[in-house]
């Protein structure tokens, strides 16, 4: 049987294992909470912050470590072999490939498409980190959640440790709770936490842990990065341990679709780097920051709102 994860709060032993791994991997936690005062219309009326999860680690940055941490530590020992899925610019595969290389774990990456003649910088890194790269057709890749296909992969690679695309499952939702805990320790209660949405685990984790915290109600704002109204909501709902109503997804800032950009978005990403020293890319973080900028300009937040933009790290989308 393939390993399926049940949502559990980490026990003391798990926390010790996580701390040990963070030391071995040089994870810098907690990530900084940075006050942010951009020269955006209307921003002066709000209290803005950036949760700099991109600074957790140079490679295993952002929500990648949050989502993987509990998956790796909920058993007595680390796995010998991990299989996971992603595209040619996958932040998830990049972080997981480096992590496995550092920990001596065999890693097999099921990559959508054939890049053998033109590997991306991300795939070049994976090769350097001794990842077993398996290029699969888009048709085969569509089976990545099919139980029979996963069982066949488990037999093929002699491992039951298969992590979904994007690292998103209920163990990932549990790991995202670290972010909420850190925010509670770093600042006064917040009104809004904003994050990009693609596979749903980060938004589900933020919504669940904020709802369970007992602190002042915090609204979780998702900025959809792909054309998937209804689809993204279904992903989040499937990952929530229990229903909650403190979240919603804004689908008006996905632009031309997933991993597609235009001149406005690319220029905005450059501006964030040059004017504010905040590196963002056009797939996830760029759409988050630009979407929030436009929502502020439209007057969608009440004066005095305390809002955190969660920088989920991962800059593979900015590499040529």
Automatic annotation (TrEMBL):
<dbReference type="InterPro" id="IPR036052">
    <property type="entry name" value="TrpB-like_PALP_sf"/>
</dbReference>
<feature type="domain" description="Tryptophan synthase beta chain-like PALP">
    <location>
        <begin position="38"/>
        <end position="313"/>
    </location>
</feature>
<dbReference type="InterPro" id="IPR027278">
    <property type="entry name" value="ACCD_DCysDesulf"/>
</dbReference>
<keyword id="KW-0663">Pyridoxal phosphate</keyword>
<dbReference type="Pfam" id="PF00291">
    <property type="entry name" value="PALP"/>
</dbReference>
<dbReference type="InterPro" id="IPR001926">
    <property type="entry name" value="TrpB-like_PALP"/>
</dbReference>
<dbReference type="GO" id="GO:0019148">
    <property type="term" value="F:D-cysteine desulfhydrase activity"/>
</dbReference>
<feature type="active site" description="Nucleophile">
    <location>
        <position position="90"/>
    </location>
</feature>
<protein>
    <submittedName>
        <fullName>Pyridoxal-phosphate dependent enzyme</fullName>
    </submittedName>
</protein>
<comment type="similarity">
    <text>Belongs to the ACC deaminase/D-cysteine desulfhydrase family.</text>
</comment>
<feature type="modified residue" description="N6-(pyridoxal phosphate)lysine">
    <location>
        <position position="64"/>
    </location>
</feature>
């Amino acid at each position: 049987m393939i390993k399926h994860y049940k949502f559990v709060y980490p026990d003391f032993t798990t926390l010790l294992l996580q701390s040990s791994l963070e030391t071995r991997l040089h994870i810098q936690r907690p990530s900084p909470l940075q006050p942010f005062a951009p020269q955006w219309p209307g921003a002066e009326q709000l209290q803005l912050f950036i949760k700099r999860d991109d600074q957790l680690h140079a490679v295993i940055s952002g929500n990648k470590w949050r989502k993987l941490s509990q998956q790796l530590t909920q058993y007595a020992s680390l796995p010998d072999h991990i299989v996971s899925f992603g595209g040619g610019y996958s932040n998830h595969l990049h972080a997981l490939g480096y992590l496995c290389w550092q920990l001596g774990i065999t890693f097999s990456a099921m990559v959508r498409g054939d890049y053998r003649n033109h590997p991306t910088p991300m795939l070049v890194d994976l090769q350097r980190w001794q990842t077993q790269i398996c290029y699969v057709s888009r048709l085969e890749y569509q089976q990545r959640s099919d139980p029979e296909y996963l069982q066949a992969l488990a037999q093929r690679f002699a491992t039951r440790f298969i992590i979904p695309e994007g690292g998103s499952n209920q163990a990932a939702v549990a790991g995202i709770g670290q972010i909420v805990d850190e925010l509670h320790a770093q600042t006064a209660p917040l009104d809004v936490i904003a994050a990009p949405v693609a596979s749903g685990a980060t938004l589900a984790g933020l919504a669940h842990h904020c709802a369970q915290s007992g602190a002042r109600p915090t609204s979780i704002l998702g900025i959809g990065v792909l054309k998937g109204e209804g689809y993204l909501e279904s992903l989040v709902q499937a990952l929530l341990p229990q229903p909650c109503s403190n979240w919603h997804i804004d689908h008006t800032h996905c632009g031309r679709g997933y991993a597609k950009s235009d001149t406005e978005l690319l220029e905005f990403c450059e501006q964030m780097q040059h004017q504010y020293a905040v590196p963002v890319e056009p797939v996830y973080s760029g759409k988050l920051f630009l979407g929030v900028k436009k929502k502020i300009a439209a007057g969608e937040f009440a004066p005095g709102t305390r809002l955190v933009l969660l920088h989920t790290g991962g800059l593979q989308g900015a590499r040529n």
